[in-house]
Amino acid sequence: MVLDEPKVSDDVYKINGFTMLVDKDLHEKTKDITVDYVSYGMGSGFRVASEIPVGGGGGGCGSSCSC
Fold first, then answer.
1. What count of other Cβ atoms lies within 10 Å of the Cβ of residue 60?
2. 6, 21 Cβ separation under 8 angstroms
3. What is the DSSP string of 15-49?
4. I need a labelling partner for 50 at 20 to 30 A (CA). Which of 33, 36, 41, 56 fits?
5. Which domain holds residue 8?
6. Which pairs with CB-CB distance under 8 Å and at least 24 residues apart come from 44-50?
7. CATH assignment of the domain containing 32
């Protein structure tokens, strides 16, 4: 996950006051994407999951992720 400006190659969604951008090619591969904020143990962060997982070995956007 990164901060970015919308591009022609993005699908744009406005959800609960947030604007989410998803690259159209990636969206075709992953289908539906879910973003959750989770707290666990000594940390917290974003968890990104997709209907069809693609590479990367999992994880969330907390302390040890490269989103």
1. 21
2. yes
3. ETTEEEEEEHHHHHHH-SEEEEEEEETTEEEEEEE
4. 41
5. 1-67
6. 46/1, 48/1
7. 2.60.300.12
Say which residue the tokens 């666990």 belong to: 40
Q: How many residues does the chain have?
A: 67
d(CA 40, CA 28): 31
Q: What is the helix (H) or strand (E) element at residue 14, kind and residue range?
A: strand 10-15
Total domains in the fold of the chain: 1
Mean pLDDT split into 10-residue runs, the chain, 67 residues: 88 91 92 91 90 68 47
- CA 1, CA 61: separation in Å to the nearest integer? 8
The pair of three-digit structure tokens given for residue 16, joined into one six-digit string? 């609960």
